[in-house]
Amino acid sequence: MKKKSRFLQTPVEPFQVEGGLTADAVLSRMERISFQGRNLATARRIWLKMLEDDVTIFLGMAGALSAGGLRLIVAHLIANRYVDCLVSTGANLYHDLHETRGQRHFIGSPLADDAALAEDRIDRVYDTYASEEEFITNDIWISDFAATLEHRPYTTREFLHQLGGHLWNTTKRDGILTAAYRAQVPIFCPAIADSSIGMGLSQARQKIPTAGHIDIIGDIVESANMIIRRPRTASVVLGGGTPKNFINQASVQAEFYSPDVSGHRYALQIVTDVPHFGGASGSSLEEAQSWGKLATDSARVSVQADATIALPLLASALATSAPAVLARRKVPVFTLASRDMTIDGQIVSRDRFEEMNESAV
Amino acid sequence: MKKKSRFLQTPVEPFQVEGGLTADAVLSRMERISFQGRNLATARRIWLKMLEDDVTIFLGMAGALSAGGLRLIVAHLIANRYVDCLVSTGANLYHDLHETRGQRHFIGSPLADDAALAEDRIDRVYDTYASEEEFITNDIWISDFAATLEHRPYTTREFLHQLGGHLWNTTKRDGILTAAYRAQVPIFCPAIADSSIGMGLSQARQKIPTAGHIDIIGDIVESANMIIRRPRTASVVLGGGTPKNFINQASVQAEFYSPDVSGHRYALQIVTDVPHFGGASGSSLEEAQSWGKLATDSARVSVQADATIALPLLASALATSAPAVLARRKVPVFTLASRDMTIDGQIVSRDRFEEMNESAV
Amino acid sequence: MKKKSRFLQTPVEPFQVEGGLTADAVLSRMERISFQGRNLATARRIWLKMLEDDVTIFLGMAGALSAGGLRLIVAHLIANRYVDCLVSTGANLYHDLHETRGQRHFIGSPLADDAALAEDRIDRVYDTYASEEEFITNDIWISDFAATLEHRPYTTREFLHQLGGHLWNTTKRDGILTAAYRAQVPIFCPAIADSSIGMGLSQARQKIPTAGHIDIIGDIVESANMIIRRPRTASVVLGGGTPKNFINQASVQAEFYSPDVSGHRYALQIVTDVPHFGGASGSSLEEAQSWGKLATDSARVSVQADATIALPLLASALATSAPAVLARRKVPVFTLASRDMTIDGQIVSRDRFEEMNESAV
Amino acid sequence: MKKKSRFLQTPVEPFQVEGGLTADAVLSRMERISFQGRNLATARRIWLKMLEDDVTIFLGMAGALSAGGLRLIVAHLIANRYVDCLVSTGANLYHDLHETRGQRHFIGSPLADDAALAEDRIDRVYDTYASEEEFITNDIWISDFAATLEHRPYTTREFLHQLGGHLWNTTKRDGILTAAYRAQVPIFCPAIADSSIGMGLSQARQKIPTAGHIDIIGDIVESANMIIRRPRTASVVLGGGTPKNFINQASVQAEFYSPDVSGHRYALQIVTDVPHFGGASGSSLEEAQSWGKLATDSARVSVQADATIALPLLASALATSAPAVLARRKVPVFTLASRDMTIDGQIVSRDRFEEMNESAV
Fold it and tell me: Quick check: B262 and C211 in contact, CB under 8 A?
């Protein structure tokens, strides 16, 4: 009898339907099917591995996930330290703040009459609506708060921690910003100028000309120093955008100053963009290796799926299977209240990169 | 205080993570989030409505779902009469037959060296492999069986029922073809000539020149007559392709001969194609109304997702919430063994359309 | 100085804008840019290579290209023998016939009110409209013609040649079917049952019960025999679907019977589907090598683009640069009027595969 | 005879192939076809309308367009004032600087072995390569330059103008940065922190702790003030991302302070993202109306295409048909060398929004 090909090792195991299966069991059965289903099941396995290893886990978040109903999942991931640092678009933090302040997004239709919406001052995000007037109250709330800060540039990390604290103190409600504040998890927002949070900051200058200053370059230094201080890292990316690149850039920048850094050890992305148009959002994790963004022996998986399907399933599954691992997880400890953050007791400078030479290591 | 806009009625309800949630509970919590997550949750609700109503449910199936590990889900949907009639590509039925005959598909990599695979005669479907030699044994098995049939054209519906019976008698294993055979559920395969089942049929002629004749036009007549006989229908489509259009065409053709037919009452599609390039696979359910494929007051939802993620979750959820509805469901009863099928005791001709004039109705 | 990496050979040459550039010059300048622009430029180069080589060129056509305004490009490609054999969906041939019969498609909007369209009996294809009443006259025209044919099964190749002839004799207008008739270029339509042409054929049975018989399995035999008779082939695919697979299947089936056949030598596809969901429409040309659909040393390129952008540009460019090559091109010569077609004077059987054993070759 | 439906007004006009057609003629013939081809032809027509009207035209640029060979097209659009203000990702400006400094990107393969590339320190962007060592020289060049600037925060607009000037003085080569410098066209880069230009700025602090300060919030104020000063605007977007939103945000922010502002009058986007996942990159221009980003009576078109195909064709066409319109175009006149820019002789503050009350208008 002919010898079997080396390529034919592990059979596909058709998914068996059963009543009462948990999300965790569903994903577990999807490990041996194909295409994006298998990839999503692999994402669960890789995330569990990250949690078992001693790595700093970055979470990147782009797309309208907060408006779309995923903000409490992200808050849950932060509060339970599935992740250690959030990098987000401004919109996701703004829509989170909108709801934490007690306002809502609303179920809408993608086929709506936008002229009629405009007349009612309703803003549409695909199939979701929000009140422009309520948005304006947010802008004012943010600019009022920004006007109370010291008259010096803040990194987005420092500003967002302060903002989260103010939000928690005002509302005592759960959300991304408040969860990160309470769990002492840093948030970076590299494109804050391209968001309503940035708009709120800009409006603070109308009151106090020296207000609303952000040290966006300081964020680059801080994020790289975090990795120089703790070189083993992992990346979880939802939706591409600036967060995906910023997380990778931090590792590349850190590697420039420290020989200990050599790319993320784990990478998991849930994206809808594709690689073949050349954009960073859809770029493959293989390509990331060429840049040194990922270690060439990293565990990695890319899932082509809308996060509004993939994340509820994945987070529900992890909530069943991860608690034991989380309980014994060794997390980085941050202090975030001052101008300079610390990680595991060490200062993380915003002003200059820590230079680790070979001998120091 | 300003009156609230009529557009702001139902708030988005952020998804709350919890350990131990069933697939059904996950989808239930996704009903009030946004984007494709909400659509998938709506799909569950619409499918339940179909099952409660008195409609013939068509299932369309395109893409490499059988090779990709979803064939036992489809078999489960047939066996438990979530659906009443399957329209499939030939490949899905062929890959089902491959596994029912005891062979396997295998876990592979999309980054494989295809020249090396070709040398080993391994066929790749994205991240899944199969043995070409085993495929050839299937072709021979099909052509041997086709050579035993009467020397006259068979509709794909008749041929596939006979093939399913032969497969069941030979293997006693579960699969799509065998489940449909045992549940007396008809299968149509309008593009059978574009598949390895068609290739097997063509090879039968090498043995017996008058073998391997398929009456593909008879399938059009039969499928329309099914709807003329039982005008209330629903459509569940996985992946677009010829099955999607064939199910719609059957309704349009039936309407031509019977005033009782007026488009599907329910429509649910899980597709990855998009509308804006004009192709039928990605076409919207709204567009389908213009053609009369869907009733203008139909309940409908389109989910943009890979079926390998969406279907395991959806089918697992339904397995929890649907059994009671299924138990009292009034299904159409078919006989499929003869040249002419019957539905609820009435002949479904392959030779001419039943003409229902107004008075007869 | 450090030696340059072997990977850095050919610089990207930024596109230089200039007034008055021809389509051909534009594509020529796109050869050294990146992403899908480069791929489209490569497509022009590969098509020119096909025309210079002695290969049978198959053109596959899926998506609503005829309704979308590309039918005269396809007719031009056929009439000038850029291609030697067309494999099409039924819809593209039907919409071609619609216009050749003197009717039109109309500019519409993707945001149309489909209920209003349905009331006016206007069928929508994304942003394009057509009159359902005119469509019904086509169906009748086709069924009237089908009823005049001999009472025996026709391959789609034979039927479509006859239909093209009848259309030419009736209208004397250019189109895909008439161009193929006049240029003696065969057309296959493997999914004819999933189209309005199939519906027209089915309606012929209402007049004459023995009419409207299609020998779809004969198409498989014929298409493979074409390749057995002339083993060097090339594939140009627009939009995936059944035509893409049918063209590949013909080669795989031919290889089964002849050692001379070893996959297409050239392959060019313009698709909007992507590989990562596992469907055949979006499958990569690399994957096709594992199946033997393509020779492992084939010249090939996949362009991710809407054909309504890519094809006008590509065909306009070729109309400038290809005429000299076309003039000296050695094309296969077909006769198509009888039950059995011929290629270069040899019978192409629909009933059994030509078996070429090693010694015969 | 039945009256024709009001929906059937303008027939689709099939594209007629002809040798020697210019890009302009090709796009002109595409106006009456369907799908994305029609949309691209409409983009040409709308851009011409913008040029004829008295509007400030913003160009947004995301995706790897500079690395991909489109930087000289963008430089051409700036130099010839097809556009008046550029909003870009940092990567596009960085890759532009890379080439203007005399270095190159290289033709590569998407199927490359990324571990081998990593070993050679070659960075891959889909099918395009660049040398990491050369990139490092850019970083140093940028940080050296940044260290020479005044020790105060610069808006990206001011910094990039200075950078462009330095680049022009050093190289005398054409590119995006140098063309914008010479044409006195402002460039904003809201996500500069998420790019290698940001990395270069951060490295400047290693030399001079007070260097590398960017006033990203000042960019928000400046961009809105530009629109307050000149309220009629248009938006051309390539690839979505932060530039798309920033251009829209500027209009929304301006409207907050001036009743004269009411959304862009014209909008044209060439994107590959889709609306149905909720992300801003793929969001529809209809949705933008609900936000007031676009005037509800704006002329607008969205083209779903890779810019590497669409832009060479579109820019080549415009280079043929636009010169006369460009010659009589009334452009906004900027001065950009100082801390405060001017538009048409008026100061554009970075510190506070110009407030236009009703009476002042």
Answer: no
Question: What CA–CA distance (Å, rounded) separates B270 from B65?
Answer: 12
**Euclidean distance between CA atoms A25 and C111, whole angstroms:** 42
Residue C122 one-letter amino acid: I
Cα B297 from Cα D225, distance rounded (Å): 49
Nearest to A85 by CA among A170, A154, A156: A156
| CA distance to B332, C68, C161, per residue, from B258 (Å) | 19, 31, 33
pLDDT of residue B269: 98
Q: A-chain residues within 8 Å CB-CB of D239?
A: 279
Please tell me the distance from the alpha carbon of residue C43 to that of residue C58, in angstroms, as a whole number.
Answer: 15
Closest residue by Cα to residue A299 from A46, A56, A55: A46
C267 touches chain B (CB under 8 A): no
Judge whether D207 counts as a catalytic residue.
no
The answer to whether the Cβ–Cβ distance between A308 and B14 falls below 8 Å is no
Residues 6+ apart with CB under 8 A from A106: A128, A129, A130, B7, B8, B9, B10, B11, B12
Residues 9-68 of A with CB under 8 A from C: 34-36
Q: Is C5 on the interface with A (CB under 8 A)?
A: no
Chain D touched by B110 (CB under 8 Å): no
**What is the value of pTM for the model shown?**
0.97
How many angstroms separate the CA of residue B111 from the nearest CA in chain D?
Answer: 8
Which chain C residue has the Cα nearest residue D71? Answer: C14
10 Å Cβ neighbour count for A146?
Answer: 26
Which secondary structure element, helix H or strand E, spans residue D166, and what is its range?
Answer: helix D156-171
ipTM of the complex: 0.96
Q: Tokens 């309980």 label which residue?
A: A327
Contact A221 D205 (CB under 8 A): yes
Smallest Cβ distance to B22: which of A2, A21, A319? Answer: A21
Q: What is the phi/psi pair of residue A310, to 5°?
A: -70, -40
Q: Are D198 and D192 in contact (CB under 8 A)?
A: yes
Does D359 have pLDDT greater than 60?
A: no
> Which amino acid belongs to residue A4?
K
User: B5 CB near a chain D CB, below 8 Å?
Assistant: no
Contacts of B63 in chain C (CB under 8 A): 277-280
B143 in contact with C at a CB cutoff of 8 Å?
Answer: no
Instruction: Give the chain A residue nearest B24 (alpha carbons).
Output: A20
Q: Is C110 on the interface with B (CB under 8 A)?
A: yes
Distance CA D67, CA D65 (A): 6
Under 8 Å CB pairs connecting chains A and D tally to 227
Q: Which two tokens stand for residue A330?
A: 């060794």
pLDDT, average across residues C275-298: 94
DSSP state, residue C154: B
Q: pLDDT tens digit string along A124-152?
A: 999 999 999 999 999 999 999 999 999 99
